[in-house]
Amino acid sequence: MPAPDDDLHLGAGQPDPAPFHGHEVLKSERVYDSEWCALDRHEIRVSPGAEATGEYHIFRVPNAIAVLPVTADGDVVMVWQHRHPHGRTHWEIPAGRISQGEAPAVAAERELLEETGFRAGELVELTGFFPINGISDHYAHVFLAMDCVRVAGLDLDETERLLVRTRPLAEVKRQLFEGELQDGFTALTLFYGLQRLGKL
Question: Percentages helix, strand, coil for the chain, rounded to the nearest 5?
Fold first, then answer.
């Protein structure tokens, strides 16, 4: 059995390796553009000083928010939502894009109210994430909405199909751990939120 390579092991508390330098962009062009999304093509140099080039296609979409709403009774406010790209209906937390010039916390409050009719007593920002960083710089800001109460009806886009329900936290946690919640925004936000609530 070969001896372990000490250079591969990074112990607890040790610093991360130095970051790589970005690729040199030789040419950039907008391939597609709409009010919803865009696609850029970058021609890059594969390594510093190299003659060889490659290309990246970068999907551009506005940054987003994801909100884990919890009522004073400890239930989770979720939406039973249909998603056209894969044709399925499943449980999600409220989420949506940030409008131009809008602060993430304001977007979180807006989306929570529009999609569920609930308002938070307290909004806590958690760790965000890059959901598709192999193809996009799209970033999701994550919030825990505490002491949520129903204050209004829904204000949905014409293409949105969803129902709002309050669900026991224990049941939502079971579904998360058993892989029944397949929306990435929902699953990762729940992990962050449960950790913050001391329920993980």
Answer: 20, 40, 40
Q: In this structure, what token pair is assigned to residue 154?
A: 């829904």
d(CA 68, CA 77): 8
Tokens 């970068």 found at = 58
Which amino acid would we find at residue 176? Answer: L
Cite the DSSP H helix spans in 69-183.
Answer: 104-116, 169-177
- Chain centroid offset of residue 194 CA: 16
Predicted TM-score (pTM) of the model is: 0.90
The residue whose two tokens read 């003659």 is 51
Q: Range(s) for CATH 3.90.79.10 in the chain?
A: 64-197
Estimate to the nearest angstrom the gap between the alpha carbon of 98 and the chain centroid. Answer: 12
Query: At 37, which amino acid appears?
Result: C
For 34-52, write each residue's pLDDT tens digit. 999 999 999 999 888 888 8
Q: Please give the Cα distance from 85 to 52 (Å, whole number).
A: 36
Return the CATH superfamily for domain 64-197: Nucleoside Triphosphate Pyrophosphohydrolase (3.90.79.10)
Under 8 Å CB-to-CB from 191, ≥6 apart: which residues? 176, 200
Phi and psi at 153, nearest 5°, equal -85, -175
Best CA proximity match to 156, nearest among 98, 81, 64: 81
